[in-house]
From TrEMBL:
Residues 143-208 form the HTH luxR-type domain. This is Response regulator transcription factor. One of its GO terms (molecular function) is DNA binding. It comes from Magnetospirillum aberrantis SpK. Residues 2-118 form the Response regulatory domain. It holds the Pfam family Response_reg. Coiled coil: none annotated. It comes from the Bacteria. The keyword Phosphoprotein applies. The lineage of its organism: Bacteria, Pseudomonadati, Pseudomonadota, Alphaproteobacteria, Rhodospirillales.
Amino acid sequence: MRIILADDHVMIREGLRPFVEKVSPGTEVLEAGSFPEIVELLKTQSVDLIILDLKMPGMNGFQGLVNLRRDYPAIRCVMLSAMADREHVLEAIRLGAHGFIPKHLSGAAMVSALQLVLSGERFIPAMLVDSAGASGNAKDQNSGALIGRLTPRERDILRLLREGHPNKVIANRLDVSEVTVKSHLGNVFRKLGVQNRLQAMKLLVDSEPF
């Protein structure tokens, strides 16, 4: 496993590196302080994931993300930013980011988020879900009604899901097997009328906190 940790602040890279190394046994972390440095690394290195600072030199807003997704579609990209407002998160996901990690996220939560992304899913911060409950439109009410059909255990799993935890972590938190978690998630998706985690998260964006 090889991950590029890209941020123009050395202290931030030094602080995050120990957590990124915990994502998978034997993970190799490559550091970059600008977008051009990322491009140079990719010329010689095979990489699985890039953690990309939004305000880093050479990024030009989201253009750096767009360029990476175009030129290296097999590499998963996660945005890292202190500006984790709803608009920035949704725009990053729309442009192809596989996740958006606020810089205030705890180290343990970041590890879980990166593991989720590497498992093939997307990570959407819980704050995005929580901030969406004030719209009060019909779609909110419909989402709330669907969630109301879930059992208490299914709601527990859904809460952990929206925090970005993979099945293994959810199973450990609830002291059940991964098979049980998968079974519950199948029921949750069926009741919510969705087919996967990403669709469930998009539905939760339009629902009140539960």
